[in-house]
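Appendix C reproduces, verbatim, an entry submitted by the partner laboratory led by Prof. M.T., so that reviewers can inspect both the input and the predicted structure.
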Amino acid sequence: MSDSPNCPVPAGVNLHLTFTGFRNESRALREGRSLLSAGFFREVHFVSNLLDDDQSFESIGPGLQVERVAAHSFRDRAHLKGRLGRILEFAEWTLRVSVGQRGRPVRVIHCHSLPCLPASTILHAISGAPIVYDAHELETERMGWSLPLRLGAKILEVACLPAVSTTLVVSESIRTWYRRHRFMRSIHTVRNLPRRPSSLPRRTGILRRALGLREADFVCLYQGAMGNGRGINVLLESFAEVRDKHLVFMGYGPDVDKVLMAASTCANIHYLAAVPPDVLYDYTADADVGLALIEDQCLSYRYCLPNKLFEYMVCGVPVIASDLPEMRRSVESLLGGWVVEPTVAKLVPLLRSIERDGRSLVANGLQERALSCTWDADAEVLLNAYRDVLRAEE
């Protein structure tokens, strides 16, 4: 990674906007820390949504702070809950952020995902600060969006894009899509890659001890969000048939209750709450196989490239991944495991065919190969994109 932006350190703040509660924003944090450590800015501020009882202001490291902006006026009204309440909450948040950040010394606005584009565009008009649009997925082709919502999102994105200086995307397939459908020219692929470990993770038995499993047990790990389109039902049904292997879910999400119910009836299905990032690799390295099954239910999912895919491989854990373009390319290029159509009919035979010896052959040398796909690999792409933006403003 470069040590210098090759231009004077800009006075002012690198302002990152995200409509989340800023609880698990690993990508945003990695980007902000990389920009700080490379000397591009003296301060990086994250402005997010205030959810529940989170702190309004929080210092998260030297030069890094989070400001959470409340937009509760509509959220708490019973007759405005659901999608309408969410839209009104978004409108209120946009207005509050635009007014609250007005007059602050913003040098570059980093817009995390489509919902932050209107506030970013307003602040750009007020301050003249350039916008870096960070599309965390194929923004207008998300899972579960109705036709009217999808149409509104497309109109919003197209209307705001003229104010954007450069765009970051998470996979080459999404980059190609944006070039073809939004006629973008300045667009860069910055993948959701995990941090490079200070030392290679090794198996310690911590995951097995937490669940009362033996060293001899074959453990398949699913880590991360549990929700629609992520193969949860396929996994539960498959491991209800394949009883000689253990399925461990570790994470959070709306399908946790479904997992807990299955775990109560199947002795080989287990649930463990999400663990802190600083010990995640210790738990991951204890698995025999990692699971990353995304269902082809929308374009955003088809072109996705999940962070956990690389987290498994950095820990020396071979993966079973969905046969989708970006996931297949990554697994095959690193000789990192198996790709499969995410259905019970396809997954069950594959699970039954994988034994410890075969797993070991795939795992041999996997960690060293996967180190080429840690955050340092794409951080330089981020820094080069910022160099271009800052030079254009000189």
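The chain has a mean pLDDT of 91. Additional entries are available on request from the coordinating office.
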